[in-house]
């Protein structure tokens, strides 16, 4: 092996050692620090807490008693069953999402999905998780993000299933009273075929009347394909959207069958081709187009992923749970490692191009050979 080759190999080895050393030092410098959007998270959580207080007032005004299962008295916990209940739901998950820090979590997920102030987010809201629905609303508004949402009346057990105060009506009253600035772009009944075929007709009729009186556009489209097409057209017309958020298990969000659930929870990015068919919901369809999606259904897994407590007896004060912090590294070590490695690689190139002593430059050698 010639001296030049040995020198190049030595320089390459030194670059690798330098990179490894800087990585180790950066890792040792890691500290838990507040997110750069910490103040936005705090604002969103405080706004969500104010929404909870207002909903408690609405329930008192309507004579709706607070649920005994609502341990934190948020107003977000419904009944075990009513005539507009669509499916079974976990009480623990409902209580977890009725937590002001859910808004801070939504801010973080939106940032992780690449959403920034000035962007537009499309959302499908089920009445099953009213706390999480409002968390998305307050997160978007605190970030300066425009939200285009379609909300549904139906709710699973312990969700917004009281016939006198459905989720679209909660949202309508909150906007009317100035606690939020976003209103439902459209409303559906939810439930079977998204038109409430599994609901009590005697309860649905007055709900429809109230929605009409509030000026909320109720869309009843039982055909799955036509329903999907209508929603996509609305999000495109009002957007186009930069991210799609699915809260709860509305059939149009997750599709027919289990394919939507199997894609995962939280922030989803398309890592490859997403197979679409006639049963695919909006989650699959937007992922297939390369649009980021936030899927919010399996709350227990979501809490584990973000090191947050599931159904805690005591909530940490706003601004103090794990969702407000992330691991931060000393950037100086990383910059020094990359800069040093780049300098060594540049030196490698110089050594390779430099003619060895006693040998003419490569161009001169070619001339000599050709000229004989």
Shape: elongated
Distance between the terminal alpha carbons, to the nearest Å?
Answer: 29 Å
Any idea how many domains?
A: 2
Task: List segments where confidence is low: pLDDT < 50 over at least 5 consecutive residues.
Answer: 362-372
The helix/strand series, from N terminus to C terminus, equals HEHHHEHEHEHHEHHEHEHEHH
Major sheet strand order: 4-3-2-5-7-6
Write down the oligomeric state: single chain
Label the structural class. Answer: alpha/beta
Tell me the helix content. Answer: 40-55%
β-strand percent reads 5-15%
The overall pLDDT average reads 89
Q: Helix count, per DSSP? A: 14
Strand count, sense and barrel status of the largest sheet are: 6 strands, mixed
DSSP E strands, number = 8
> Whole-number radius of gyration?
28 Å
Question: Secondary-structure map with pairings?
Answer:
Layout (H helix, E strand, L loop, with lengths): L2 H26 L2 E4 L3 H25 L28 H7 L3 H12 L7 E6 L4 H14 L2 E7 L14 H10 L9 E3 L12 H13 L10 H15 L4 E5 L3 H4 L4 H4 L3 E3 L13 H7 L4 E4 L2 H7 L19 E4 L2 H23 L8 H10 L1
Parallel strand pairs: 2-3, 2-5, 3-4, 5-7
Antiparallel strand pairs: 1-8, 6-7
Helix pairs in contact: 1-13, 2-4, 2-5, 4-5
Textual characterization of the structure:
The protein has 372 residues and is α/β, with parallel strands linked by helices. The chain has two domains: 3-30 and 329-371; 34-326, no CATH class. Helices cover 48% and strands 10% of the residues. Strands 4-3-2-5-7-6 form a six-stranded mixed sheet, with helices on both faces. A two-stranded antiparallel sheet has the order 1-8. Helix 1 runs antiparallel to helix 13 and helix 2 packs across helix 5. The model is unreliable at 362-372 (pLDDT under 50).
